[in-house]
Specification:
By secondary structure, the chain is mainly alpha-helical. It has 2 domains: 1-43, no CATH class; 59-169, no CATH class. Helices cover 78% and strands 0% of the residues. The protein has helices at residues 2-10, 18-23, 26-40, 46-77, 87-107, 112-122, 129-137, 141-169. The longest helix is centred in the middle third of the chain and has 32 residues, at 46-77.
């Protein structure tokens, strides 16, 4: 999924061989190595397990720091940082996807705790690593930062609303 996302960010509606270079990346290599370990039955050395655990724990905080470092130039510009298409990712991520998920989860027989967990997870804002991916593979870094920050702020309102909506249906 990560490699497909990178491909779509760089595509420009046509295929280029330089895009293959971006598809072969560290996350893909990590998945292949992990699958090889799983299929072979070998256990990874404890030092490798601990290292990967520590590094994975750093991904989200480092993405948040990165976004924090990108925000001051926006405030210094004092220009309108909101863009016209901002409503689309916000409505999709914060309203449409959670509402459809609630409607689907209502008909699936599942433990109450899992239903509630699923509903809250689908109502979460845009993930922080999206900004890092956009800044690395496109030239729309500003839009990614604004979308992530605004969706995080709006989720303070939409998550409780989705939870209340779900509680009426469950």
């Amino acid at each position: 999924m990560f490699s497909l996302g990178i491909y779509l960010l760089q595509s420009d509606q046509r295929f280029q061989f330089k895009q293959l270079k971006a598809l072969i990346n560290l996350p893909l290599a990590a998945i292949i190595i992990g699958l090889l370990f799983a299929l072979s039955g070998f256990n990874a050395p404890i030092i490798l397990k601990n290292l990967s655990s520590m590094l994975s724990s750093l991904a989200a905080p480092l993405a948040m720091l990165y976004i924090g470092f990108l925000l001051p130039p926006f405030f210094k510009k004092k220009a309108n940082i909101l863009f016209r298409e901002l409503w689309y990712p916000l409505i999709m991520r914060l309203v449409l996807i959670p509402v459809i998920s609630v409607l689907v989860i209502v008909v699936i027989p599942m433990d109450d705790f899992l239903q509630q967990l699923f509903i809250i997870l689908t109502a979460m804002p845009t993930f922080m690593l999206a900004t890092v991916l956009f800044s690395r593979y496109t030239h729309d870094e500003e839009k990614a930062v604004v979308t992530t920050v605004i969706s995080t702020l709006l989720s303070l309102v939409t998550i409780p609303l989705i939870a209340v909506f779900a509680s009426f249906l469950l």
